[in-house]
Amino acid sequence: MSAAGGRGVTARTVRTSRLDLVPLAVAHAEEMARVLADPALHAFIGGAPSALPELRARYERLVAGSPDPAAVWGNWVVRLRAEDRLTGTVQATVTEGGRVAEVAWVTGTEWQGRGIAREAAEGLVALLVEQGARTIVAHVHPDHAASAAVAAAAGLTPTDRVEDGEIRWERRVPGRP
Question: What does the pLDDT read at residue 22?
Answer without folding.
Answer: 98
